[in-house]
Amino acid sequence: MAGTHEAGSAGLRRVPDEALPAASDLHPIQLGTGMAQSYAIPRPSSAPAKARWINKGEGVTVAGISLPHGLFYFSEAAGTDYSEPSMIDATRKVRRSPIAISPNPEAWSPGYHELLPDARRRYLEWHAQGRCDPTVDIGHVFLFFYGLERRLFVDAGLDPQVCLEVPTIRHEVQRLMEVYGHDDSFHAHGRRLLEHLKLSEIAPRSYLQEPALPAADGHEIPTSLGVALGQMATDQYPLSASWALAWVLNDPNVIRRPPMERCKEAFMRLFRSEFANRHPTGILLKHDNTRLTVLYRAASSRLDPPATLIDGLPDVTASSGTRKKLQLIVDQCSTVLGPFSRYLGRNPDSAHTLEALLYLPVELWPLETQAELDRLKARAGTDTLCLSYGDLTQRLNAIEALSRDQAIALAQLFDAINVGCEPDVLSGARLPKPGDPVALFACATTDGSMRADSAYQAAAVTLDLASAVAAADGKTSPIETSWLSSHIDAWEHLSIAQRKRLKAHLALQLQQPPELASLKKKLDPLDHDAKSKMANFLAQLAKAEGVVSPQEVQQLERVYKVLSLEPQAVYRDLHATVACAPGVSIVPGHAADAPGFTLDMDRIAQLQRETAEVSALLAGVFSDEAPASPDLPPPLPEADSVNGLDSGLSAFLRLLVSRLQWSRAELETATRHLDLMLDGALEQVNEMAYERFDMPVSEGDDPIEINPDILDELAL
Questions:
Q1: Residue of 258, 68, 23, 51 lying closest to 154 (CA atoms)
Q2: pLDDT digits over 449-468, tens only?
Q3: pTM of the predicted protein model
Q4: Which of 196, 479, 500, 519 can pair with 545 through a Cys bridge, CB separation 3.0 to 4.6 Å?
Q5: How many other β-carbons are positioned within 10 Å of the β-carbon of residue 375?
């Protein structure tokens, strides 16, 4: 391909062949050769005739100020040539009294000879104090830096002995970078020079080492990267994920998305993973005839080093084939990280909080948070794990109570790693408060589709009633818990996954028994026969540990009332489940003595069958129920994109601005119909509005109010 690349010392850029110097003016570099060979350039005009270089440790005095540190050009004769702007001319006027070093726009003058006396005084004092004051005007640092560039790119071509000074100058530039690297311009120029100084040190097969990713700035391709890619093409060594990442982070021709900068660490991890998935054996780079050429772009306007050919290496970045493959991965990663990036845009200090991590795939979470998630999964895999919801979220680094959308996202995350969670917010259960208990248990990936059917809901209501009876005396005995668990195992009309979830549901209900009044509406549709069978089941539970306490009897009476049964039937049903010994009876308000009776196991088996029948009857009731929906406008037809939003978000936005106020419940129902999460949908439409109109669409949490000023802007 015609043309080469022009670059700063750290970078390559494309220039046409006709713009290059003649072949005799280009100086090929053999990698791994000495400094003198590496920096052979056309003989330029020499340093100023009456100026000399002050070596490190050699001291001079100017205007009474001792300058002991060297590494600059100096002249004390009138009429000196000022082609080197950094040269300190002792004949120039300097303010006599000391002056504090402070920022001064005059320090940006093209050369020392053009500074005013005050600025010269500040510059000399900065030299005298070791060139380390972090408050000095950055123009002073650049003025000194110009001299270092001339020493390397001009004097080294005239005197091979200057090459011996390269380590000293490199160390000085590195020191300046530590002090003044916070300035973006100086950081870029300093990095370019250091990169160029490494050029002759780059060894064959440098691609076997990891690239220096922290140095990437996306403005130009570093020389070391261009060389490594050229070596890969020459050796037909496949491009690895790390070098591909270095390429996309540095190449200005790669289209950069906000996640690449806003969440760079996550982007790099995801890029490596996606590259490995798409190209498990790497990518072979083409070796074409485009030559790899380096051009050092000096900070000093008085220097213009010529382009340098890297002998024998192609310029891989000159062709677009591989770049297009990498761009596809960049775009995919940016799409995945988009919600996380937008959240960080609003909450820049929250990258490691659970609220932010819920927008990321688990494999991109911090390792310590992943480890905690693994511990929770391991404990849930051996037995049902009960803990408070606040404890659960804090273990995963939540900083505040989760919103409903965030709680649903957390439940979906657990579901994806085969951990079930009760209460089941994915099926519409009430969002737990921080102090409420939750239960985690091992589940299969297919469990989610089974838990909302009518048979499961019926069994859950049965257990809700049973837990209210079991906890009536203020405690639930292990015998009662085991008895209920065995009944769940006997409900063969339910799947194994459903029975496992029911046991977790039961564990929570025994800790926080439900109010009977909350169950009455669900039980009213049952006929008398079904209610009687359920009552027998509950009476059997009360006798499970051999003693019926007065509190349990009172609770049973309340349950029977909820079931619209005669409270006195409690005592008949208690007797019906027990074979009594002589002289033993069960009367209202008196518990039977444990040694005085034995359980009729045939009767218990019969009641287990009847309980399954009750569950089936309840299932029919549940399947006939239809949840009430808020009074919402009719569903919107498929709409064209609104301001770049997809069809789902466009439909949501049209609905959103149809009124000036919404309750949260109304919009949650609407977003469920659109397969959206409310908080995420609001976030995306508001982000769009900020970017296009500098104002939000909505404000508030409940109620959610629509900004009337946005209506004219949207023009829906």
A1: 51
A2: 565 567 777 777 777 777 77
A3: 0.61
A4: 479
A5: 11
